[in-house]
Amino acid sequence: MDLDYKAIGSRIKEGRETLGISQQKLGEQVELSTTAIALYESGEREIKNLATLNKIANNLHLSLKELIEGYENPP
Question: What is the distance between the alpha carbons of residues 74 and 34, in angstroms, rounded to a whole number?
Fold first, then answer.
């Protein structure tokens, strides 16, 4: 299965904004740079590490499936 990194990035941004946290704060929580978060959100960088995807999902209060595939019932 090919991942849609632009869609994943959009969900990261949406989740982060819903929680009212900055890229910097999310980066601190998941031990990534602000630049990495920005690149993931824009889809310019692919998240190759499943553990990183899972960390981001957990910090955004999403399941890994929701982060990767989207929401069954959008919030």
Answer: 27
